[in-house]
Design a protein that fits this description.
The structure holds 2 protein chains of 2 kinds. By secondary structure, chain A is of the alpha+beta class. Chain A is built from 8 helices and 4 strands; from the N terminus they run αββββααααααα. In chain A, helix 6 crosses helix 7. Chain A starts with a helix and ends with a helix. Helix content of chain B is 52%, strand content 6%. The chains are: A alpha+beta, B mainly alpha. At the A-B interface, helix 1 and helix 2 of A face helix 8 and helix 11 of B.
């Protein structure tokens, strides 16, 4: 049997036998080299209680080349692209070792959620948010966990989030990690809400950064 | 540097003021707005050979061996280890020696050259056994964080015994025969003693996995310090270990990659630019930011004795000889030519000059100049004149360029011509070589004229005497 297939089969079997790690690996289609990994968000983080799906593609030369992984579930995290789910992690690139397994890599992803590395970001806007205002970042990350990863609502924050995975309408302002008052301030000037959110997010209009950005600058951006 | 000061002076003189002609150039150019143009005219071949030394692949290997031997004797290390250290420090011997003197263990650990016992240095690899979910762990840098987490959570496999890089060789050596299943391909070889393999760090996997791994690292990734497969084990495989694992031809390429990296990291070394030429050239006088404005380091690789000669500029890495232009101007010209080539050829193909206002006019319509405001400023007309001049030179330059291309075909045909000449007439082969020489001279002339056009354009921009200008102009018109 092909060494790659043998190894992948063994890894999937190992993962099934291991009940303690809460990590599952399942097939997405007929190919044994296209898989879906699932793990719970780590405790004590905004991601707690959410279930995260990861798309796994096993390359031809596995295990000598790293597996390709990206988040299927949307995650608000400096090292994960909020649009595509692409992940910036050293062991998925040059620090890969053939000894690492799918399970150990998924565990690394789990611990990446515990310890973001904003200096080496995948998503620069999220990283800026993280460094500007940690509490606001965590609130947004929590909101994302609740609406996308199915985490139970915590019951605090400015507004009650929708229950369950995408059942009710979503709050675009909370998704962008912005203050409602800020968005409404520019909305009253006659700009569209989506445009305001887009500009404010791009300029990182949050926390201590707010006094640094003049209203004129924002209006200028809005008029572009 | 083995040259005495006197020799050095002579050389510089030779470079700038090669002959009488040069002096007259310099007089013409006195008081120019920049001192960019200092004529470095063609020197004879001996000048080049004094500036540059051609090194063959064997010479390079010898030189690398000497360097490693140096480090080896100073630091009292084994040859292979010294070699790994040098490669890790990108052949920067001074920094290596300095760092090694500071903390030898650290250098050995980080470069992966250490004996397995040296790996004890890694204090980070002592695992904190907290589960990854505890928040206290987040203080740690995430780069080592995930790996720590993996180690603590992978208690299932027998791997935990080996996953710590700090285990001394003896212990692993004792346990390894019992490990009969390769962790990587999950295969259980029938004969573990011959089919399992471990480098000096003792991490045992099956030989075919080691082969696949090292081949990928060397051939695809071109990595010259190949680390052990075990996660977080930094030990770099020794050359003889690689030799055992790699196919012969790949191991030969590995040697080539080491040379590549050696040349890449030495500023005084460069590979010959000509394809399929594996020689490197070492300059004896390094040029710097200021001296490059006056010197053109044209190098000729002595590996090729038959034309085309392997001549290139050591600084701007263009093939051929662009003297007397200095690198900055030569590059500027080339960029201009490349950038403008498209638009200029379009203008030539699709426009005609309006007889009244001298503007290029597209052939499908009339000139709109009547409708335009008449006060075309001086600046515009001057720019137009400049453009015209540039086009004049550009035209001639491109003609030479095209001729050279055509003559390249001639070179190919000449070989047949010679053979047929030898067959049909009484001429001997050596006598028939005159044809070859003729073509060579023609090519050389073309090259010279090409550069001459560039140079002339540059001179034209300067405020030189009208008579001089006119003379050159006539000359150019007549030769082209």
């Amino acid at each position: 049997m092909d060494a790659r297939l043998r190894r992948v089969n063994k890894e999937i079997a190992d993962c099934k036998n291991d009940k303690t790690s809460n990590i599952t690996i399942t097939l997405i289609d007929d190919s044994p080299f296209h898989l879906k990994g699932t793990f719970p968000g780590p405790e004590g983080t905004p991601y707690e209680g959410g279930i995260y799906d990861v798309d796994i593609v096993i390359p031809e030369s596995y295990p000598f080349q790293p597996v390709k992984m990206k988040f299927i579930t949307k995650v608000y995290h400096p090292n994960v692209s909020s649009a595509s789910g692409a992940i910036c992690l050293d062991i998925l690139k040059d620090a890969w070792s053939p000894v690492l397994t799918l399970k150990s890599t998924l565990i690394s992803l789990q611990s990446l959620l515990c310890s973001p590395e904003p200096n080496d970001p995948q998503d620069a806007e999220v990283a800026k948010h993280y460094t500007t205002s940690r509490s606001s970042f965590e609130e947004t990350a929590r909101y994302w966990a609740e609406i996308y990863a199915g985490a139970p609502p915590r019951g605090k924050g400015t507004k009650p989030p929708s229950v369950g995975k995408g059942t009710k309408e979503r709050d675009e302002i909370a998704i962008a990690g912005l203050e409602r008052a800020h968005v409404e301030q520019f909305e009253t000037l006659g700009f569209e809400r989506t445009k305001v959110i887009d500009v404010l997010r791009r300029l990182n209009y949050r926390g201590s950064n707010v006094p640094n950005i003049s209203d004129d600058r924002i209006v200028e951006e809005l008029l572009k | 540097m083995s040259l005495s000061d006197e020799e050095y002076d002579n050389e510089n003189q030779g470079l700038f003021f090669g002959d009488e002609e040069d002096d007259s150039y310099n007089k013409d150019l006195e008081g120019e707005e920049d001192n960019l143009i200092v004529v470095a005219d063609k020197e004879d071949e001996s000048e080049t050979s004094r500036m540059f030394k051609t090194l063959s692949s064997d010479d390079l290997e010898e030189e690398i061996r000497r360097e490693v031997n140096d480090v080896m004797s100073v630091l009292e290390l084994e040859y292979d280890v010294a070699s790994i250290l040098l490669r890790h420090f990108r052949w920067n011997k001074e920094r290596l020696l300095e760092d090694y003197m500071d903390s030898p263990d650290k250098v050995l650990y980080e470069s992966g050259g250490g004996r397995p016992s040296n790996n004890n240095f890694s204090s980070q690899s002592s695992v904190s056994e907290e589960p990854p979910t505890k928040k206290t762990r987040t203080v740690k840098a995430s780069r080592s964080g995930p790996l720590t987490a993996i180690r603590s959570s992978l208690r299932l496999n027998a791997k935990t015994k080996k996953s710590k890089a700090s285990i001394p060789q003896e212990i692993v050596g004792n346990t390894s025969p019992s490990t009969t299943t390769c962790e990587i391909c999950c295969d259980t070889p029938s004969d573990p003693s011959s089919m399992m393999y471990h480098p000096r760090c003792g991490h045992t996997f099956c030989k075919s996995c080691w082969r696949d791994y090292t081949r990928g690292k060397v051939e695809d990734d071109r990595i010259i310090n190949v680390a052990c497969m075990q996660e977080s084990c930094k030990t770099v495989l020794l050359e003889n270990e690689l030799k055992e694992l790699l196919d012969e031809n790949i191991f030969a390429r590995y040697g080539q990659f080491i040379q590549d990296s050696y040349v890449l990291h030495d500023k005084s070394l460069k590979f010959c630019l000509y394809p399929a030429c594996s020689h490197a050239l070492r300059t004896k006088h390094q040029v710097n930011q200021t001296s490059i404005l006056t010197v053109v380091p044209i190098a000729t690789c002595t590996a090729s004795t038959t034309p085309p000669s392997h001549t290139f500029c050591f600084n701007c890495e263009t093939r051929g000889d662009h003297r007397p232009l200095i690198c900055a101007l030569a590059t500027k010209w080339t960029n201009h030519v490349n950038e403008d080539a498209g638009s200029v050829s379009w203008i030539i193909a699709n426009t005609k000059v309006c007889p009244k206002c001298q503007k290029p006019v597209e052939k499908n319509g009339g000139c709109r100049s009547d409708l335009e405001i008449k006060d075309a400023s001086d600046k515009v007309s001057r720019s137009r004149a400049d453009l015209e001049k540039w086009l004049f030179y550009y035209d001639r330059y491109m003609n030479h360029e095209k001729s050279i291309k055509l003559e390249n075909q001639l070179v190919e045909r000449i070989e047949e011509q010679i053979t047929s000449l030898v067959n049909t007439s009484q001429m001997s082969w050596i006598e028939a070589r005159f044809l070859q020489h003729a073509v060579d001279v023609l090519m050389k002339c073309r090259e010279t004229l090409k550069v001459y056009v560039k140079k002339q354009h540059r001179l034209m921009l300067k405020d030189v005497g009208e008579g001089f200008k006119e003379g050159r102009w006539k000359f150019l018109v007549s030769v082209s």
